[in-house]
Design brief:
13-stranded mixed sheet; 24% strand; single chain; GMP Synthetase, Chain A, domain 3; Rossmann fold; 7-stranded mixed sheet; 16 helices
């Protein structure tokens, strides 16, 4: 624990800890009649208010206490975005236990590993995941019971799962007479595991303090810009870094909250946007690809949708321009990671940018953006020496702040900090005015003849071609240059494009020697559990690929 100097004159303010329970209490007291709307797993639309959410959260907190859950115990969820999942966010953390969201898109063996590593005491799950839970439950050594998130009539007649309880039974059997406990704000609040593309997933253990501070900061105008005038639909799953903190920052501001449940296809998301008059959403590029395809193919428009935050992986400029110019939707490019709770930067224009030519404004908006207050960042070379913010020099990106991890849960991976800074694994440039742009993951950089080629730039150019739906660029072996770029492309349905045409599409847009040596067309790119393209899988697939010789 860091030791701080103590002043001889301390402030005389009330000493009230920053606790997650205060968020739902505030939402109830000051925005109690504002709506929470959910498309349920059952298929219907559920509506209630922040006041009712708070009441049911207290009932569930009483239920957890009767099940023997104590402060610090881990309670897991396998659930989509919905009102019951939101209730658990507050019932579990608010009562002092640790909310552990598990990604249901992981392999059953990985889920079992995570549950055992976290030492989960109970596991709550949506009924769509019943077969998944039946597949891994026997491997979970610490889980004492399972709760299916449904009402009594939907409980299975037979199941292999021991001690299976019904969510609504627990709600009905318990009173809402519950006082949220007061404890140290540095107590653990929630646990999220990295996606684990290499090795076993590692846990990031957040505190109440870090979560509340992150909620404040992320709601600010130059971050997610959430207010009580918004209707917010988090497309990003609640099992993916706590839906980027939206289950906290939205109730904190009193905005109407809309949950899409499991229906994340373009048609379903669009219909919910229109029926609930959604103004703001957040998600990864792969989800928006489906939405834009549906809107384009059906000649549709958005009547209320004005702003979206896109993160998780770089937003292709072509997608950003489509949203902005065709549909009037502002795209806020954001960056962060599980280890950062997750928000680190957001890209919005400053006053000095407003009179710039359109192409210069667009170039700024394509960056990952400016650090939000609470996050500090720098770029360093391989020796750890800090590099200049000149917008040209590439370096390894390091961060620090009150919602950045200091170590992984149970010390996995050893000492992860470098002189008090967390190494993100990203390679970036930073402009003189503090705008950061990711040029690659350190493991994805293409090293050709001793020089670096950024794969993200090559992918963005390819996706600007009207025939390209998705693109990934990797480095493959070259006998002279060590590595050269190989472009892997998914074409848009019903559109043709040839290899030579795509390679010539790079002319004049980049240094000639950056141009990919070859193009491979595929039906689909491998997508991971968090919606990111799995470049490690692509590299494995093409590790023996022979590039054409000149």
């Amino acid at each position: 624990m860091t030791q701080y100097a103590k002043s001889p004159l301390m402030g005389q303010m009330m000493d009230q800890p920053l606790l997650i329970s205060t968020i739902i209490k505030h939402a109830d007291r000051y925005y109690g009649s504002n709506e929470i709307v959910s498309r349920r797993v059952e298929g219907d639309i559920h509506r209630y208010t922040y006041r009712e959410c708070h009441t049911r959260s207290r009932r569930m907190a009483n239920a957890l206490a009767k099940l023997g859950v104590k402060i610090g115990d881990r309670v897991a969820t396998l659930a989509w975005n919905g009102y019951r999942h939101l209730e658990l966010y507050y019932a579990i953390s608010g009562s002092g236990a640790v909310m552990h969201t598990i990604n249901p898109r992981l392999h059953p063996d990985q889920i079992a590993y995570i549950a055992n590593h976290a030492e989960d005491l109970y596991l709550f799950f949506d009924m769509t995941f019943l077969p998944l839970v039946e597949a891994f439950h026997s491997k979970c050594a610490t889980v004492k019971g399972y709760v299916m998130m449904c009402d009594r009539e939907r409980m299975p007649a037979e199941t292999k799962i021991p001690n299976l309880m019904c969510y609504e039974d627990l709600i009905e059997a318990n009173s809402d007479d519950f006082e949220w406990p007061v404890f140290d704000e540095n107590s653990a609040s929630s646990l999220c595991y990295t996606s684990g593309t290499t090795g076993n997933p590692k846990g990031a253990l957040y505190s109440h303090r870090s979560t509340v501070l992150h909620s404040y900061a992320s709601a600010m105008p130059d971050a997610l810009n959430v207010s009580s005038r918004d209707t917010v639909l988090p497309v990003v799953p609640m099992f993916h870094v706590n839906a980027w903190g939206l289950p906290y920052s939205v109730p904190l501001t009193g905005a109407k909250l809309v949950f899409p449940g499991p229906a994340l296809d373009g048609k379903s998301v669009y219909e919910l946007f229109e029926s609930e008059q959604v103004t703001f959403s957040a998600g990864v590029p792969t989800v928006w690809l489906g939405l834009l395809t549906h809107v384009s193919q059906n000649n549709l428009k958005f009547s209320s949708f004005k702003r979206t935050v896109i993160g998780g992986s770089a937003c292709p400029p072509a997608m950003m321009k489509t949203f902005r110019h065709q549909y009037g939707v502002e795209v806020v490019h954001a960056w962060g990671m599980t280890e950062m709770s997750p928000l680190g930067t957001a890209c919005t224009l400053q006053k000095s940018h407003l009179d710039l030519p359109e192409d210069e404004k667009q170039a700024i908006l394509e960056k990952q953006g400016h650090a939000i207050f609470g996050v500090d960042m720098k770029i360093v070379d391989d020796a750890g020496e800090e590099l200049p913010w000149d917008g040209k020099t590439y370096g390894n990106l390091l961060v620090r702040g009150p919602w950045v991890i200091s170590k992984y849960f149970k010390g996995e991976g050893g000492d992860v900090l470098e002189n008090g800074w967390f190494p993100t694994g990203d390679v970036a440039v930073i402009s003189p005015d503090g705008y950061m742009q990711i040029t690659d993951r350190s493991k994805d950089v293409i090293k050709s003849g001793g020089e670096w080629i950024g794969s993200i730039d090559l992918e963005n150019i390819a996706m600007a071609h009207p025939a390209v739906q998705q693109a990934a660029c990797i480095g493959v072996f070259h006998p002279k240059w060590d590595e050269r770029p190989l472009l892997v492309v998914v074409k848009k349905p019903g559109v043709e494009v040839g290899k030579e045409e795509l390679i010539h599409f790079y002319d004049g847009k980049i240094a000639k020697w950056w141009t990919p040596d070859d193009v491979v067309f595929v039906d689909a790119l491998p997508i991971g559990a968090t919606g990111k393209v799995l470049k490690n899988c692509i590299r494995d697939q093409y590790k023996e690929y022979k590039l054409p010789t000149a």
